[in-house]
Write a structure and sequence with these properties.
317 residues; alpha/beta; Rossmann fold; UDP-galactose 4-epimerase, domain 1; 3-stranded mixed sheet; 14% strand; UDP_G4E; EC 5.1.3.2; carbohydrate metabolism; NAD(P)-bd_dom_sf; UDP-glucose 4-epimerase activity
């Protein structure tokens, strides 16, 4: 069962399961997802992960053996203004999902966590052992979600792992795109489509080109690794509590803008705006442990990320 399976990331996870010959079922309240993202023939349950009885019925009626929990409120900046909503959607919902799983005897879960659990660490390369210091209710809620899995596993039979990642971009197929109003790629593409000039928030950071450096990974690579983790749990393989799905080197915002201009053929010079408060110069994670245990690897480069995302944006009109 894929919670949030009608969303941008969840829908890619669903297709990755299909590609592996595993039948998924989707539960999603469509608060940010799209029913059209769910493939034909995949059972779709419209409902809230807060609804324990609906979760139990879905697990039971579809003979679910494991869960990939993608559903959640994912906007870190907005979470500062809506902390209670964030905790309800990300903590209470996870608690109720685990309750329903326990009551129905489902004991395997892959949790879609976030590198926001680290906050803004002052290290060149984030590892799983980097201290956790989330700086938003969103990051805190994801860390609490990991704690919930840990504590339930200590008290009962639960096989689990959490996948932490930063920025997810690109499209596995043109029909699936990132529709978030807060993410960089949609903001840049919307500006180009509307004849506006994309902008960079700050060019005076202590980085090679002065712009922020971040981890960007392709959504199809991310989805495939969720399925790999689920398969390993199904096989009874022991996994670490959490893995970083990191690039190991990262790219700068200026590099992304150059790639966008190159790939789309739309020539532009980005506007330079002031820094945003709290933006660190660099956050990049190591994916070494995930590579060793889950087979994590980045099969798409930056141009692939831009090209697939741009194709999906153009298809949407």
């Amino acid at each position: 069962m894929v919670t949030g399976g009608a969303g941008y990331i969840g829908a890619h996870v669903v297709r990755a399961f299909q590609d592996e010959g595993i039948d998924p079922v989707v539960i999603d309240d469509l608060s940010s997802g799209h029913e059209s993202f769910v493939p034909d023939g995949v059972p779709f349950v419209r409902g809230d992960v807060l609804d324990v009885e609906l979760l139990r019925r879905t697990l039971r009626e579809h003979a679910v053996t494991g869960v990939v929990h993608v559903a959640g409120f994912k906007y870190a900046g907005v979470s500062v203004q809506r902390p209670l909503h964030t905790y309800e959607q990300n903590v209470t919902a996870t608690q109720r999902l685990l309750q329903a799983m326990g009551e129905e005897g489902v004991d395997r879960i892959v949790f879609s966590s976030s590198a926001a659990v680290y906050g803004t660490p002052d290290v060149d390369l984030v590892t799983e052992d980097t201290p956790k210091a989330p700086q938003s209710p969103y990051g805190e809620s994801k860390l609490i979600g990991e704690w919930l899995l840990r504590d339930v596993a200590a008290a009962a039979e639960l096989h689990h792992t959490s996948l932490r990642y930063f920025n997810v971009v690109g499209s596995g197929i043109p029909q699936l795109r990132d529709t978030s109003p807060h993410n960089l790629f949609p903001l840049v593409f919307d500006a180009l489509v509307e004849g506006r000039t994309p902008r960079i928030n700050g060019d005076d950071f202590a980085t090679p080109d002065g712009t922020c450096v971040r981890d960007y990974i392709h959504v199809a690579d991310l989805a495939a690794t969720h399925v790999a983790a689920a398969r390993l749990l199904e096989e009874g393989r022991p996994l670490r509590p959490a893995y970083n799905l990191g690039s190991g080197d990262g790219v700068s915002v200026a590099q992304i803008m150059s790639a966008v201009a190159r790939v789309t053929g739309v020539d532009f010079t980005p506007e330079i705006a002031p820094r945003r408060a709290g933006d660190p110069a660099r956050i990049v994670a190591s994916g070494a442990l995930a590579q060793a245990d889950l087979g994590w690897r980045m099969t798409r480069d930056l141009d692939d990320m831009v090209a697939t995302a741009w194709e999906a944006r153009q298809l949407a009109g």
